[in-house]
Design brief:
15 strands; Double-stranded beta-helix; 3% helix; three-stranded antiparallel beta sheet; elongated; mainly beta
Length: 251
């Protein structure tokens, strides 16, 4: 008997296969063992908790845990799974939040439903801070997301030389988690009578500490047109136990 001709010579090849193309083995794994081993260290972190850090620059929230919505910066969602609803609104619906540099309203999105949402922004470092009835002040520029259950209000620190005329800070209080973003790895320092920090480098501080604008005549390396070149610092005062968080970065 004559052997059947190869595909492409009068014989119909299997569905989805081009003539002359070798047949893929049945039940073949979608990827080789080498690929799986190479990507193993990047696999998703185990689930079960509400907030789970995937790596230093990516965090996941499971909305099904505690069945509570979150508020996050619009555009910070990089991936989601499950039935998640996104409501895009101005921050005015939850208290006016204004960007420090532009003076424009910061846009928030409300994420609700039952699923997981992965958040990140410009590869900044992310830090979940869990509040258990206590309070913390965070620069509005450094807020990425927070539980809707947290009480929050916007505080305005005015001072000569601050772009836009004021520094906007969000004070969080209650029970829940706020995700803080920083450029680089931050440092936490105790508040002393001589604690000063650049207003753009300050990320957060304990709510009981007092922040006062203190301008010092020092030319900035990136002074913009119309600027005096003056460095605007914040002086912090407070009882022992108060702290500030500073990032190795300034605008």
């Amino acid at each position: 008997p004559t052997a059947p001709p190869p595909p492409g010579y009068g014989q119909q090849p299997p569905g989805g296969q081009f003539p002359g193309q070798p047949t893929a083995p049945q039940g073949a794994a979608p990827q080789g063992a080498g690929v799986a081993a190479a990507l193993q260290k990047y696999r998703e972190a185990p689930t079960g908790q509400r907030w789970t850090q995937q790596n230093e620059k990516l965090i996941r929230v499971d909305l099904g845990v505690a069945d509570q919505a979150i508020l996050a910066r619009q555009g910070s969602m990089v991936l989601y799974q499950g039935k998640v609803e996104f409501s895009y609104k101005g921050a005015g619906f939850a208290g006016r939040i204004v960007g420090n540099a532009t003076g424009q309203e910061m846009q928030l999105m409300r994420c609700s439903g039952r699923g997981q949402v992965f958040l990140a922004e410009e590869a900044t470092h992310l830090h979940p801070i869990e509040l258990q009835g206590d309070a913390i002040c965070v620069s509005a520029e450094n807020v990425l997301a927070f539980d809707e259950t947290l009480q929050h209000e916007v505080r305005r620190i005015e001072g000569h030389g601050i772009p836009g005329g004021a520094l906007f800070v969000m004070q969080f209080q209650g029970t829940g988690t706020v995700i803080v973003k920083t450029h680089g790895v931050p440092v936490v320092l105790p508040v002393t009578p001589t604690t000063f920090a650049d207003c753009h480098a300050v990320v957060a501080w304990s709510a009981a500490a007092q922040a006062i604008v203190s301008s010092q005549v020092r030319l900035r390396s990136n002074a913009y047109a119309g600027s005096t070149g003056e460095s605007v610092n914040l002086q912090f005062r407070g009882a022992p136990g108060n702290f500030i968080v500073v990032q190795p970065y300034e605008v």
